[in-house]
Amino acid sequence: MPYPADRERDRPWVMRTYAGHSSATASNELYRRNLDKGQTGLSVAFDLPTQTGYDPDDELARGEVGKVGVPISHLGDMRRLFDRIPLGEANTSMTINATAMWLLALYVSVAEEQGADRAALSGTTQNDIIKEYLSRGTYVFPPGPSLRLITDMVAWTVSNVPKWNPINICSYHLQEVGATPAQEIAYSMSTAIAVLDSVFDSGQVPEERRGEVVARISFFVNAGVRFIEEMCKMRAFVRIWDEITRDRYGIENPKHRRFRYGVQVNSLGLTEAQPENNVQRIVLEMLAVSLSRDARARAIQLPAWNEALGLPRPWDQQWALRMQQVLAYETDLLEYDDLFEGSKVVEAKVEEIVTGARAEIDRVQAMGGAVAAVESGYMKSALVSSLADRRRRVESGEDVVVGVNKFATTEPSPLQAEGANAIETIDPIVEQHAVEAIRQWRDGRDETLVASTLDDLRAAAKTDRNLVESTIACAKAGVTTGEWASALRGTFGEYRAPTGVSAASASGEAGAEIARVRERVRATGEELGERLRILVGKPGLDGHSNGAEQVAVRARDVGFEVVYQGIRLTPAQIVAAAVQEDVHVVGLSILSGSHLEVVPAVVDGLRAAGAGDVPVIVGGIVPPDDADKLRDRGIARVFTPKDYELTQIMDEIVSVIREANGL
């Protein structure tokens, strides 16, 4: 931890690499290699079916298994994931939210099998469901039951796993979907207030242990390339957290009030164009959370330079780890007290951010708190509007992105000379093996025990009994991820969060180019005898919806009638909506790497429904070779992150409609 053992030099932060893919066995090999290279903590990436509570053989899991993380379906998978890694000594961060209780139960079960004491376990479950409704989209249950799961985990860990951080409140993803520094602080602090109020109101924690609860609340933040502003934001975070915990909750011990946070620097700020520039972006962003000793991160994980292109290779992840090691061990950064104490410039910027954040916190609290502000759509609409403003500034050139909207002339990059081999690819056989493996797992277990533990879980969910021990019993009985989530879906129900699109505003968009494209949309609609309609679809389990939302907002602004139903749709549901709404074009947004599986399924479904003449376009992280394959399957256009000018994309969509209709 960065708090000093002596006055000479701080200890380095925990160094992590966010990793996991294909299978538990493959990910275990990757983890052990990374630990051998000097990584000091594990950061587990789970695949989307695991994050959203589906087994690999579920229809919604098609094309998603092992793509953006490791599939963990049951206790056997968790055993393989941590084979030869002693959990009693490890520090493990798990990026998991809706199913966080389930994955923690599996982790505790494996640790106990290894002979570790629960009280010795240290690490973090992300477990911030509020930001899932606002950004990442891996929520499952409605806000009320989701907050109950978090509450039970916080209360249980304080008593049973006191070194564990049961929640990692994430402003990281809020920045990715448009949050200003003030919004980033305000919405994450509003989440913290909602969680602490729920825990203390539940009666599960005695008054004298409230400080221990507060001390286990950690945060996960984003550091963008405006590193002075980002550093000031972190100092503002520290000040506001200290105020809230002292004044609202009466926490007297300053150690309990300490703002404890980890960082991943901005992944969505990385560019597909001239990706070698991402190296210096990552380094500058790392400085934002390490330069200021009084607000220094306790754990840092860095993305790889090529994450805008696809899944990074082990060598790319090693490069990111070495960046941290050079800063921590070669420079003199850790030898000094805070470098910015007494700076008038820094203090003025911190005060500006603090003032804005306090005002937004008050606004959310006046609405009834974070849950109410989610259910009303207020926070989501505010973020969609902020991101629209940010995109406008990039498109206009007001905000410079080197290699994208300025200085775009470039030499060929030797880092990309290998073509498709410059990124890690997942063999489609991985999904088939996972499907076969989970069926074998089910065949080999005691079904009577499985049924009884699930029945107990359902019964407990209908009361106020803490659900963690019932969940651990399910884990040890051999219950699967999908079965655990399904049992709670049956009790709690499912949820579809507001998209934020209908209420979003995009100020400053009415330029000459917008007007020109709006006229093309109107004229083409007149030629066809009806207003142009576009369906924006998010097939599969990918919940990163900000791109789709921005497309929907811009399409509305140029005159399209927009059909956008939110995230997590099957190809069949998208086809049904396209046919029912009689749309002129279908736009699919996919960032998880499942495009080669789910996009053809939509195309084939349209043909089967007699709508094969409706053109389909795709946007997302699609490597060039895959884009060619999609075009061969009949996709009219493929847009990737380098296509950043939304109005030009709208213009191209009008051309697609005209071509499809022979105009």
Automatic annotation (TrEMBL):
Pfam families on file: B12-binding, MM_CoA_mutase
Cofactor(s) annotated in UniProt: adenosylcob(III)alamin
Pinpoint the B12-binding domain residues: 531-660
GO terms, molecular function = cobalamin binding; metal ion binding; methylmalonyl-CoA mutase activity
Keywords carried by this UniProt record: Cobalamin, Cobalt, Isomerase, Metal-binding
* The organism's place on the tree of life at top rank: Bacteria
Q: Which family does it belong to?
A: Belongs to the methylmalonyl-CoA mutase family.
What is the protein's quaternary organization?
A: Heterodimer of an alpha and a beta chain.
Q: What is this protein called?
A: Protein MeaA
Q: What is the organism of origin for this protein? A: Saccharothrix espanaensis (strain ATCC 51144 / DSM 44229 / JCM 9112 / NBRC 15066 / NRRL 15764)
Q: What is the lineage of its organism?
A: Bacteria, Bacillati, Actinomycetota, Actinomycetes, Pseudonocardiales
